[in-house]
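Table S2 (continued). Query chain:
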Amino acid sequence: MADLAELRDLIDRHCTAPRLETAVPRVRLLRAEAPTKPAPLVYDANVCFIAQGAKRVTMGGRTFDYGEGRYLAVSVDLAATGQIARASPRVPMLALCLRLDPALLASVLLDLPAGAAPAPASGAGLAVSAIGDELLDPVLRLARLLDRPRDVGPLAPLAERELLYRLLGGEQGGHLRRIALTDSPGARIGRAIGWIREHHRDQLRIDAVARLAGMSPSSFHRHFKAVTAMSPLQFQKRIRLHEARRLLLAGEGDAAGAGFAVGYESPSQFSREYSRLFGEPPRRDAKRLRQAARQGMAVIAQE
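Corresponding output:
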C-alpha cells in the first residue's frame, strides 16, 4: 500500500526518539527499535495507527495485537499492559497517535448522516481494526503537515475532523461514540475515570464517584469493570503507582516521599505494591529508568 509506505517514511524521518509530541495538535509519533517485555502502561483516549512493526496490549485477560496497517482505538483512559511485539534497528516500529477530543468528536458526530454511526458500544474501552483507504487518507494528510509547519494552523483541523468523521462512521464508530455522547454509560464512566485520575491521592468513596457518574454503586461498579477490566479501587491503585514512578524518575524525593505524595500512608505497603507492579523496588526501578533515559531508551509510563 503506497500511502502506508509514505506514512512510514514520514514518521521515520521526523521521529528519531522513542516519542515525539509534534507541532500538529494532539498528534504524537512513536518509534521503537527492539521488542520489549510486557510493561504496565496508562493509555489516554486516543487512536494509534501502526505504519510498521507491531504492538500488543493485554487487558483483563484479553490480548489485542495490532501491526502494520491496523490501529488501536482507546475510548477512555485505561490501565493495561503493553509491549512492542515486532521491531528492529533496521525495521523499527513506527506509529502515529491522535489524542481524542470529546468536544470535537461530539461536533463531528452531529455531521454524520442519519443512521451512519453505530450505537454506542459496550464492553472493553479498546478495540483493534484495519486502516482502510478512506481512513488512511486523512491520517496521511496530518502526517504531511510535519513537512509544512506553516500549514498546520489552517489545515490540521480539516484533516483531523475528516479523520474523526471516518472513525465514527467506520467499524469502531460505536466504540468511539461513547466518548461523544455525554449521557452514555461509557461517557459517564469516562468522567468518573477522569475524576479518579485527578483525585488519585484522596480516599476513594465509591458512593460519591457513582453519584458523579449518575449510577447506583452496583451499576457503576459493573460498568466500570466492563470498560476497564478493573475495579475502581484497582484502577486508582494503578494510577497512584504510575504517578509515584513519574515522581521518582523526575528525582522529586525519595521512595517513601513519593508514596506519601500519591496517597499511601504505609511505606512498606507502597514498596510492596510498587514491586508487584513494576518488578523492582521503587529506588532500584527509578535508578534503572534514569539510566535507560540517559542512553536514549524509551521510558514511557503513558501512551
